[in-house]
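Incident log, entry 3
Record: HTH araC/xylS-type domain-containing protein (300 residues)
Problem: checksum mismatch between cached and fresh output.
Input:
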Amino acid sequence: MDRLSALLNLFQPEARNVSQTSLYQAPITVAKNESSHLYLVKSGRLQLSSGQETRQCQCGDLIWIPKGDAHQLTELRQPDTDLNQQPPALVTKIEILFLHREPNQELNLLQSTLPHLLFLPASENQESSLKPLVELMFQEAGQQRCGHTTVVNRLAEVLLVNLLRHLMANQKVSTGVLGGLSDLRLARAMTGIHDTPGENWTLEELANTAGMSRTAFSKRFREVVGFTPADYLAQWRMSIACKKISSGSESVATLADELGYQSETAFRRAFRKVTGHPPGFYKKGVAFSEIKEEMAEAAT
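Fresh output:
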């Protein structure tokens, strides 16, 4: 596959609650949560406050808060000006949910390794492939036409994919999974892991795939992605395992073989090491007593 498809297939970003909101009457205040929040500034000026960071934004800017950090958007208005003198701050807000959320949000290797805030100024958006999508989103979000919800949700997901493409192509994110995929050499090794997680990947094989020496590859991978290659492989495998276990699509024994483990016992130990839980924790409809039994077995 390409650099992004495996990530999107596994973590399945889903847009919800797309709406156009004016900040003239009241600010937007969002408490910390598990969603990702994307804002498109349609008009006016506003101030974003998130954690220790404060940023002034204007018409055409794009704001992405990937990890669900608490934040507030407040209109910036000159004293004694009315709407005829200064247009209201209008934003299209988009909430995005990913497959892996609590209790193991860190298994979403895309969302968990992104920066807390990403900002694209209007000047950059105007020169990128994002421009027509942003304009269409403004148009659709501001009108309650037939099929409104379906259109804006799907359009928001297309916008997110194009935003990820833009960030990678222009190397806007230097660390984490997206940072690794922005580095063409590391991306070759990461894509190999994504496409064939059951392969018996060694450091030498991954380094050869990247076209680097083992030492240089290992150092560069750790610096950029934030994991050793072996830890990243284990994280990726367990992200797949969690998804399939929770959906009930495959047994633990089948998964162990599919993901490259010598035995079901080895898989269970690796699973618990990465997630902190036995596989039964993720099964739908499993009684707590059964989970306790699995935890006792894993401890022996």
